[in-house]
Queue: 3 jobs
Job 1
Amino acid sequence: MNIQTERLEDHKARFTVEIEPERLDNAKKAAARALAKRVSIPGFRKGKAPYHLVVQYLGENNILQDALDELSQEIYRETIGQADIEPYGPGSWDDFKLEPSPTFIYTVPLQPTVTLGDYRSVRMPFEVPPVEDDQVDEAMRRLQEQEALVEESARPVEIGNRVTIDIHSHFTDDPKPVEGDAAESSESEAPPKGMEFVHQHDGQINLGADDEPIMTGFKAAILGANAGQELEFELTVPEDEEDFSDIAGRKIEFHVTVKKIENVTLPALNDDFAARVTQSEEKPLTLLELRMRMRENLQNAVERQARERYANEALQEMVKQSTVSYPDAMVQEQIDAMVKDIERRLQQQSLSLDAYYRLTGRTAEQLREDYRESAVSTIKRTLVLREIVNAERVDVSEDEINKRIDELAASFGEQAEAFRGIFDTPNMRNSILNELLEQNVMNRVIAIARGEAPVLDAAPVEALAQPNTEADATAAEVSGESGAVE
């Protein structure tokens, strides 16, 4: 068997495999015997007719095709075993040539490869914005609302009311195309036309003078409505709203039912109020102590958000410096996962994917193409992050896993010990390991970008990332049928 290997530009390998004519002849004879057992040839019992009569009765092409179907799998497995490649998934049998010698042609997707650039040279300023007084005031007001005196009102909706409403809303336009760095750093596709925005029953909204619930324009749309009234209106997401920067400019149609209108009387902000909301603690807090704690909690939340944003931006810079190669099969698998996620979200709205296609006028092919750029971005990010894990020798200790299990179990209070057994299983420990590994490597990315990472003075360890077990299991298989048999 003579194997010639050619590396293709789309991260595949093409194998041209010549075999001895005798091997094909033997395969044809085996195919003929198998066929003869399934058909009746006059003058012979099933399976007993000589080869030349089976060929004459069934036809040379039929026997050849059956022989090739079986032989192609056998040759492929032998080729993969001898070739110096790492398949990503099953290959395809593309063609067969009978002359000048029996030759099989296969293409095989290859495992992705990553060459990190000078990722340790990435430097970015890190800033955590301070929590402003008005943010603390807003948080304190939310506490007031939880302790408020509430009375039902027969008047139309006005400022100061609490309203109970049902909301159904969806996007009425297609996502706007994103170009440049923003597109590359996007990890999730923008919601498509027809996708739900907010779906809520019996939601309670407080209409403070400075509040803008849901999004800009929503409060104005429901002011003056009466209990039991149904409203329909369309809003455009403002371009300058930070919370909705990923859907800025999109149009959203709302269907709102006002179910209840209530007057809300807020309690005074004083030491009695602070003591009441912290009465379950060992020592109730004063108003000043409560504000100080609220500021600290808010600052911690702001820092977590800043670190997450900083880590993603630093990682994206590292991705730009890296060379990443991957087969299209990997992209298709990522798109499959994204489409399944869309399907799951649609099912929550009692919609099928086919119904979505009819409503939006899009096809399955168009939806998959919409997701391609995001899928490629996700793949690059994941592969580079995995390579950084290896290069930086980031790992997770058993103590870290046990500590995380203790934290998860502790959230169940008196039942903590019983729930610990649920978390302390091989599958859960592996899931926790992956969660902690991502946290640890993102912390290392932050340290690198801030110039605080430890110096590496040893050779990298073997890859810690989990292997693609599905690809490994199918690497020795060949899918598809040959082209024209020559």
Job 2
Amino acid sequence: MLAYPIWLVRLLAWALKRLLVRLRRPPAFVGLLIESPPPEPPPAPLPRWQRLLGRPPLSVAELRERLGRLGTDARVTGVLLHLRPLALSGAQVEALRDAVASLRAAGKRVICWAPAYNAETYRVAVAADEVLLQPGGDLSPLGLCRPYLFLGEALERVGVRADLIQVSPYKTAGDLVMRRGFTPEAKEMADWLADAAFTETVMAVTDGRNLDPEGARSLVDRSPFTDQQALAEGAVDAVLAEEEVAGRLGAAVVPWESARPRLPRARPPRPGRVVGLIRVQGTIVDGRSRRAPVLPLRLPLLLEDLCGDLTVVEQARALAVDRRVGAVVLWVDSRGGSATASEAIAAALAHLARRKPLVAAMGSVAASGGYYVTTAAQRVFAHPSTITGSIGVLAGKFVAGELLDRLLVGRELVVRGRYAALNHYEHPYAEPERRRMLEQVDRSYQVFVERVAAARGRPTAEILPVAGGRVWCGRQALEHDLVDELGGLDAAVAAARDLAGLPRSAPLVEA
């Protein structure tokens, strides 16, 4: 009952503050610094002790909120994006490009400036009106180079062997520890993913620099460039120091922190139903979710996000009965993990989807179990460069008996039951054990394929040619009808509002 009175007070305060803000002259150009790879949704709240270890980076959602405030203020001419050289995934690049495109669609000029560009930040920059480069800076090679490591021989040398069972040769997640190089199937898949990523770069340069595809491909092939070469080649529009940008624009550039008090805030949303947000982020595990601390370096298994089925199932059940939640968006950024945890999450999400609209949005990667959990959604969105698919199963163990022999470690094994030592590290699978493991893998794969087929409304025979562990980029997944639309979190939230009949102002609220 108090929601509307509180909202009216907030609305009055907003109106008064907006009036005061309108009396202050805003800057013509506002500067925004992007210094860390931005996550698409804001990072989930961290425990207080973890906040002392580092500050979360600016997210794409937060950047969009800032750009939205600038886009709706007719007094603001444009934005200067200061891009640091960042290691961005293809999906992060596309999320930033979408944000730039939205601001330009609002009639604002967007200028990108950087001390140097790598291939990823250059793809972001060419979405702007102008691309500026610092004197002495350079443009890195715009092509694609993806290293693949194979540790099979190295592990064998120290007495360790990976004994893994793949549902098909395309399920290559274990090749890192099993192989000495590419299998034909792995090489085929690496090639089609590389071709797709390279095509996205050429398309970005084509659109951003007003070139035909052949000219854009030639520009990419001729890179890297020094600052003067980049200018001569038309890869950038000007070479100048950041202090000189204001002179080129004919107006001062005010940093966001200084400009913010002079910009109107969005109108407080009217009380009503909201869109819930569930995250499947990190390795999917049995048990509870755990967030890694914000550190410059993430150590696999030790310092990575873990998405537990108990946590997500509880969230899904709570949202299913929450009358305030009109629709739910599932955000997935995961390479998969436990098959049993993925099934538990998918089942809970399917129950949720029977009660209210559920829309999935894929981040940089939604593969294997990360794809599995999206099958409950009515609509699935992916960025063109999202890594997805990998509809398949992998199981096995590391065998370390030889290593222990070399270390002179004595051991004895007492066993009761024919297959009790099935997963023990002492020895590889014997043939009867391998058959039993293959039965489990085949059953898990059958469940996976049937769930995908039911979700996509297709017979299993049509799913098999794009399954078997094959990995796709988002654009390829759309062509194979594994996702419904290309887009990011914003597009998924808009679709969820439409499906639930919610107003555009309905906020997104974390579970």
Job 3
Amino acid sequence: VVGLELDRRPFFFKEAEFVVSCSYGPGRYDPKYEERGLDYPAAWVRWTEQRNIQSVLDLMASKKLDVSPLITHRFDIGEANGAYELIETGREPYVGMVLTYPGMTADRIERSVRLGSGGERNGTIGLGVLGAGNFARMVMFPAIANCDAFTLESLCTAKGVSAAHSGKKLGFARATTDEDEVFADDRIGAVFSITQHNEHAGHVVKAIDSGKAIFVEKPLCLTEEELEKIELGVEGAGDACPLVMVGFNRRFSPAARMVKEFFEGSSSPMTFSMRFNAGEISSEHWTQDEEIGGGRIIGEACHGIDLATYVVDSPVVRVFAESVGGETGGEITDDQCFITMRHANGSVSNIAYLAGGDKSYPKERIEVMGGGRLAVIGDFRVTELVRGGKRKRVKGKQDKGHVAEVEAFGKALRDGGEWPISWSDLRTVSLAAICAVKSLREGGPIDVV
């Protein structure tokens, strides 16, 4: 990262070469390699970042690479402050410092750790949570903490440090990196899956097979094949199927419920329009990857499809989508599209998922009309209801329904009764989102069956 001013003459006269080496080796800074695990063929790149590390570890293990001369100090973990003091003061020369853990051996690697004597609260349902990313910490954990139906049993993340840190802070009894342990734990009756989208379908199938209720953040799945596997599990379990719920929170918002009630009693077909001012994100972001995130239609525009289904009270039967194009359209255009849907009761809806705007403008706007009535939701802060020339305007703090959806999940588990969102709606909304992407690729309307 610094400027290089090299004299050409010694390189020229000695026919020498100057080679710049990427730290760790090929693969460094390549998200497809480092984050998605897509390896380079050995015949193309012999020494990748991972193979370099493997070779070094092998050489160290066989004593062919001796690193002991680099170690100048050893400290027990209880005396670690002394190591940092040495670095800060520089009172004596040092190169490498090793922190040792007396009494511990590497014979067995533990994937779980107990954080306390038991889970927080005395809820009736033991809870296991998969994932502790930004959305989980910022939105879902506060919603879960607001619900007294659960006892916090186990928090599972891919990295043990984040599981232990967040688990201890939230009051979970255990932290683990083994998701199978969560599904096998008899103390756990319900699971929250708040992970990357490509893991959702597998978690739902595991939950059904293990007899545990599951709340999975949207989307339910990424492909029709995954949806079929889930459907087989639901149908195979029959009446004994544990509760399955997807985080379609908008339908649980006060604004959506108010609009739903406002249109009750009207037999006329309705029109529903929702505009997302989604904001642009990098094409390299994991949500844009169809195999990991499913793309932004399946990953987020599904909220609009579900809300339309809820408000017009009818499933989607046909979907057609168009996105921007042309030479300047960009690498990804799916997140600048219009999705038009027909519902079984004759209603029509339109989801405008648009990433080309300015993020400073409100993100979501909904307009619903039918039977001489009109309703508008402005970013889930302001709701307007108009009928017979009379207008009612309700304004409040933004509430997209996250707390209410968790409460509905807990209540259904504790009290029994119908699922907060019917399996029919979960299936149809998920399939409609998949079909919207299919429509973009094929260029025509797709029947949702």
